[in-house]
Structure formats: structure tokens, C-alpha cells
Design a protein that fits this description.
single chain; 54% helix; iron ion binding; transmembrane; transmembrane helix; 0% strand; mainly alpha; membrane; Sterol_Desaturase_Related
Length: 186
Amino acid sequence: MVLLYPICKLRRDPCRRELPTFHWFLLELAVFTLIEEVMFYYSHRLLHHPKLYKKIHKKHHEWTAPIGVISLYAHPIEHVVSNMLPAVVGPLVMGSHLSSIVVWSSLALVITTISHCGYHLPFLPSPEFHDYHHLKFNQCYGVLGVLDHLHGTDTLFKQTKAYERHTLLLSLTPLSESIPDSPKME
């Protein structure tokens, strides 16, 4: 954020006294989310190209078991291109106030950690989609799944029990209990 301050200041002073209205802040979050989804999906999918995967993205996929700390475990090029840029372009485009940038950055970090943590916690986004990506490297590239749906990169995922569990958990009963995996054939 410190490195982005001079760039933000060119667009509009992010530390101005006037806070954004709540409605403007919600609009900003929607724009940030849209920009992040597009940029992350395409940069992430590009990193799965064999030449880039082997040299750059494979480091992130060394971990197939879900654990929150690997959400940012990446090659420096990947971290800038696929993790940082999708998250910062929205605030730069919108000329956002520092308060909006801090809330957005916090949300982005929490959501990426949840998507890698392996726990489907009540009232929080499901990690099933990204867990599946770490199992099957050519599926589920995005954050929201919209572009995966449009490009058909979620078709195998939609045929799994994980897809049935990919919902908002509204109880304390784990979805892995209510929707268990199919028994393995011996």
C-alpha cells in the first residue's frame, strides 16, 4: 500500500478528509470485485500455461492439502501479477479513499485465506471451489466462479460432492457430514 500511495495520489488523494458515502463504498466494492474477478481469472489461467506453470505457478501448487498460509505462498512474479494487481487496480481506477482501500484489502486477504484454509465455516464463503482447483489443476481458476462458468472451467467440479457442499453454511453441522463423499471402491 505504501508503494501505491504516490500512484493513488496522482488520481485523487486517498487521505482526503471526506469519507465516501456508504452507497459509494458499496459501489466501489462491487467494482473492485468485478475487476478482481476478471484480472485474477485470466492471470491465474495464464499461469497454468505449461511454460509459466513450471517456472512460476507450480510453487503455489506444491501444496495440495488446504491450509490458509499458502494463500500467499507464491513466486514473486505470480504474487505481483495474479495476487496484487487484481486487488489494487480497482481502488486505483476508482480513486478510492484510504478507508475503502483498507477495508477492501482486508476483505481480499480474509477471503483468499478462507479459500485456502480447508474449513467450511458458518456464514463465510465456501473453500470447496478452490480446494477442487488444488486437486484438479485445470478447473476452477476464478474467485467467484462466474468466468469459470462462462468458459466451462468448472464442469468437472459441478459433477462432484464438493459442488453440492459449495454453499453458504448456515449451521454448525459440517457439510462433509450432511453431504459426505461417495464411499471409495476397493
